[in-house]
């Protein structure tokens, strides 16, 4: 049985790199250039899995002899059994993360493909709030904040892609030593309006984890 070990953002990175190699194979006729790109793709994927076992490395490198579109697509499909899903999540867990939101609007969890999610994100238009949930240190962490549509495309701070964004502003929960009782710090960033698209774009999670650490303390 295949043991899942590829997280969503890692799969996105693999897909991006494999598509680069596929495009190179289809458009470049210099074998040296193709070889160089193939080696670069191999290295980039290997760097994303520094602790891969021999079996896992073999699965990741199965694309190396390929040069046709259908072969690369078959390779990506072959990785699906290795996708590590987002931790099992219930509506009760989500409500517990946001106890002050008495009429919390929840996402349709049955419609979520948890294998293709790095974070859960949803908006409540009635309150202009966005809710974000991510597994940190073995448990789910939740952040809520004001959601102000920018009505334009800009760079999302999480996936680093040009998408329709909104300004997501959350209040830091921690206070510096000696801060006054009314100390307040807001942290804002432009975030994809469509969290599904954002999850599909993510190739690294450093920005997400830094943001959560800044807000949650």
TrEMBL record:
<dbReference type="InterPro" id="IPR032330">
    <property type="entry name" value="EF-G-binding_C"/>
</dbReference>
<dbReference type="Pfam" id="PF07299">
    <property type="entry name" value="EF-G-binding_N"/>
</dbReference>
<dbReference type="Pfam" id="PF16571">
    <property type="entry name" value="FBP_C"/>
</dbReference>
<feature type="domain" description="Elongation factor G-binding protein N-terminal">
    <location>
        <begin position="5"/>
        <end position="87"/>
    </location>
</feature>
<dbReference type="InterPro" id="IPR038344">
    <property type="entry name" value="EF-G_N_sf"/>
</dbReference>
<dbReference type="InterPro" id="IPR010841">
    <property type="entry name" value="EF-G-binding_N"/>
</dbReference>
<protein>
    <submittedName>
        <fullName>FusB/FusC family EF-G-binding protein</fullName>
    </submittedName>
</protein>
<feature type="domain" description="Elongation factor G-binding protein C-terminal treble-clef zinc-finger">
    <location>
        <begin position="100"/>
        <end position="203"/>
    </location>
</feature>
């Amino acid at each position: 049985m295949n043991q899942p070990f590829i997280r969503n953002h890692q799969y996105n990175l693999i897909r991006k790199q494999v598509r680069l190699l596929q495009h190179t194979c289809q458009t470049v006729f210099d074998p040296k250039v193709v070889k160089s790109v193939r080696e670069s793709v191999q290295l980039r994927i290997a760097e994303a899995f520094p602790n891969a076992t021999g079996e896992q490395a073999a699965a990741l490198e199965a694309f190396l002899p390929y040069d046709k579109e259908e072969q690369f697509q078959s390779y990506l499909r072959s990785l699906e059994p290795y996708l590590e899903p987002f931790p099992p999540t219930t509506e009760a867990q989500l409500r517990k993360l946001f106890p002050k939101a008495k009429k919390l609007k929840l996402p349709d969890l049955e419609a979520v493909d948890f294998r293709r999610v790095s974070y859960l994100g949803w908006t409540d238009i009635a309150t202009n709030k966005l809710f974000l949930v991510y597994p940190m240190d073995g448990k789910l962490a939740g952040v809520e904040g004001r959601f102000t549509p920018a009505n334009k495309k800009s760079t999302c701070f999480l996936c680093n892609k040009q998408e329709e964004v909104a300004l997501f502003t959350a209040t830091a929960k921690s206070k510096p030593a000696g801060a006054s009782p009314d100390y307040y710090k807001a942290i804002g960033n432009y975030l994809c309006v469509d969290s599904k698209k954002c999850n599909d774009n993510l190739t690294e999670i450093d920005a997400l984890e830094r943001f959560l650490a800044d807000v949650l303390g």
